[in-house]
Amino acid sequence: MSDKNPRDKAHESSEQSEPFEEIDFTSSPSVQKAFKKTRMKQTFKYVFIAFLTTVIVITAVIFGSQAILNNKINEHQQNSLKETVYGANVHSSETYYIHDMFSVTEETKYRKQLGDRYIIWDKKMKRIPLIGSIETVSQGSGMTGINRMDKEAKRTVRYNDFNNEREIEFYYPDVSYSPIPNELDIALGLDNDKLIEVAVSFKQPMTLEQLSKQLGYKNVNWLWVDTTSHSKKEEINKLKVASVKTKWGEDAFGFDVSGASPYTTETGQVFLSNMEDLSNSNSTIKKALNTIRENTKTSNGELLISGAVLTGTPEELERLKGLEFIRASVLGATIDKY
């Protein structure tokens, strides 16, 4: 028998029949404000992380690409040292670099010395990319040579497209030519207020000691070292076109000398030492050095000179007239002295 009275039972039944009301805390304005503040903090946090990551990535790309480009510039500069042993009477004077994110543009000026004056001879612009090989974008003297048949000279003459000056060339001692130019007479016939460049080729190669006694050193700017092998010259000798049988000044190996002081055997040793250093990173120089060594077997290892570049006024170059060891003479650039 139950202890509860009917009223208690009715109350208990009523409680069981009423539904449970769940309290919604999220709809509270204070809670919504807290959620909104939390979402905003997370958004700012994500934006900051994304911004910081982007800055780090961009910085890494910029510094990384510049480091790679600087390495490529250094390697290119090492290769450019070839110009210290290459190119008759031509010197690089100044170089500028324009940096972009993924490439560097290099602009270099070249000049020639005539007497105590200098003239701009060429300008080259090269693109050094982050990925890929270095390419020449433009060249003041033209990407290819301009050859013109000169009726008076009776030969093909090449002109520099940048300043329209004549370019020099050398004639091999052991290759036959017809005719052989003697343009020294033209040079000596010019007004004495002109500064003239003349390239002379010898009948036979000479050691520096022999050359210093016969040619001297006054007005001598540059000496040509023949780096063409005997087998290659045999092929050249069979060619019919005279203009392809010579060595163009821009392609010739040699070295600068001072017209104010004598050159000696030691001067040649410095040149060979430079060639040795550069041959480690330049296959063209390595091949040229091997030919030089082959050619010096006939001179007890002494460097042989096959030609020279002299500059000065007609009066200063008068002493070249009648020198028996000169086989050919070619007129190069000419400028006013004053």
UniProtKB/TrEMBL annotation:
Transmembrane segments: 46-69
Compositional bias annotation for Basic and acidic residues: 1-14
Region of interest called Disordered, as start-end residue ranges on this chain: 1-25
Keyword Transmembrane: yes
UniProt cross-references to InterPro entries, sorted A to Z: Sigma_reg_C_dom
Domain Sigma factor regulator C-terminal: 190-332
Keywords: Membrane, Transmembrane, Transmembrane helix
Listed name of the protein: Sigma factor regulator C-terminal domain-containing protein
Lineage, highest ranks first: Bacteria, Bacillati, Bacillota, Bacilli, Bacillales
